[in-house]
Write a structure and sequence with these properties.
The chain is of the alpha+beta class. Helix 2 runs parallel beside helix 4.
Length: 112
């Protein structure tokens, strides 16, 4: 009852600290996420999906209730958020991925 929700080993902590020193790599990754996120959000809005504000590396949105099952059947993993308190069927979250993966998802969504 008094521990942290996710314990991190000493080795993982050291790896994390070393990774934080890689500022160029981190900044390059951030720029990719910013660019891809903006592109994905614009495309998803054009498809009529309802997006919620986010500064994270994922997009939270509302779409067709059967979207989760259809995505899984096509090999796309999205997070069904209907089990979150206060949310309903049709609430989803997707991670920002590589340009190629993002384009594949959008291309498939355009065909729905």
């Amino acid at each position: 009852a008094v521990t942290q929700p996710w314990n991190v080993s000493t080795m993982a902590q050291q790896a994390g600290m070393a990774a934080l020193k890689e500022s160029e790599y981190v900044e390059a990754g951030r720029q990719i996420i910013f660019r891809e996120s903006a592109w994905m959000k614009e495309k998803m809005r054009q498809l009529g999906l309802t997006l919620y504000p986010s500064e994270a590396n994922y997009i939270f949105f509302y779409g067709p209730e059967e979207l989760f099952e259809r995505c899984v059947a096509k090999g796309f993993l999205i997070r069904d958020c209907s089990n979150y308190e206060g949310l309903t069927e049709g609430h989803y979250r997707i991670a920002i991925r590589s340009e190629e993966e993002n384009e594949r998802l959008i291309t498939w969504l355009e065909k729905l």
